[in-house]
């Protein structure tokens, strides 16, 4: 056990790099190899067993399936409302517990939830958004752990030019609270990517009895 932990986490973590916009304002901090390859592989395998969903969301009055699969993991009582869906927590798989502990030691972020996204190939994507739901509090920290296919996340403070950051497998990206971001489709990406976007949800913000809970079946 001790040996395994050593191989996962004691490898030197590359120093963080700031990602700045054209005016020099920081958008994010990037750690290129935060999680060792062995730990990435173990986590990837455990995530395959999650109850993945591809819910429909309404866009201009019409229902469309989201262009990726997702699963919401969180501590009990930490429901999350996102794009008109109320997501009920699924438990964290065992491989994620030491990762959560290590993350919360790194940034004092108090993460208790993660939206896990599965991009099956380069066609799957995520539109521009910022994670500003009220249950995340006024200054939400967000950190993205990436596995599998490298994809480019675009970042910006306002409409206009954006910065792209290629998210390598095993990398960690902390976003400045309130920054806009999105993942474009990529013709070159043929393999699957999984991202885990860690967040802190205010426990009990959405009472369990609210209607429209998905993700609990
Ligand atoms: O997959 C990514 O890197 C971004 C995911 C994201 O922005 C989110 O889950 O809110
Ligand atoms: Fe996001």
TrEMBL record:
Top-level lineage group: Bacteria
Coiled coil: none
Binding site for 2-oxoglutarate: 117, 119, 129, 181, 193, 197, 199
Keyword Acetylation: no
InterPro entries (alphabetical): AlkB-like, AlkB-like_sf, ALKBH2, Oxoglu/Fe-dep_dioxygenase_dom
GO biological process terms held by the UniProt record: DNA alkylation repair
Entry-linked PROSITE patterns: FE2OG_OXY (PS51471)
Positions of substrate binding: 80-82, 132
Span of domain Fe2OG dioxygenase: 110-202
A single MF term (Gene Ontology): ferrous iron binding
Protein name per UniProt: Alkylated DNA repair dioxygenase AlkB
Species the sequence originates in: Ferrimonas marina
């Amino acid at each position: 056990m001790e040996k395994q932990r050593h191989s996962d986490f004691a490898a030197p973590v590359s120093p963080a790099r700031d990602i700045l916009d054209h005016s020099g304002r920081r958008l994010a901090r990037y750690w290129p190899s935060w999680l060792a390859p062995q730990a990435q592989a173990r986590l990837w395998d455990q995530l395959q067993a999650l109850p993945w969903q591809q819910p429909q969301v309404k866009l201009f009055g019409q229902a469309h399936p989201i262009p990726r699969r997702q699963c919401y993991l969180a501590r009990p009582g930490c429901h999350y409302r996102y794009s008109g869906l109320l997501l009920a927590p699924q438990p964290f798989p065992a491989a994620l517990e030491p990762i959560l502990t290590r993350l919360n030691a790194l940034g004092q972020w108090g993460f208790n939830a993660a939206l896990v996204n599965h991009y099956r190939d380069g066609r799957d994507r995520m539109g521009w958004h910022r994670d500003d739901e009220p249950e995340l509090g006024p200054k939400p920290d967000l950190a993205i752990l990436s596995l599998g296919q490298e994809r480019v996340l675009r970042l910006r403070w306002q409409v206009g030019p954006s910065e792209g950051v290629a998210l390598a497998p095993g990398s960690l990206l902390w976003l400045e609270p309130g920054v806009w971001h999105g993942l474009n489709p990529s013709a070159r990406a043929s393999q699957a990517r999984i991202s885990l976007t860690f967040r802190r949800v205010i426990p009990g913000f959405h009472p369990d009895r609210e209607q429209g809970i998905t993700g609990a079946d």
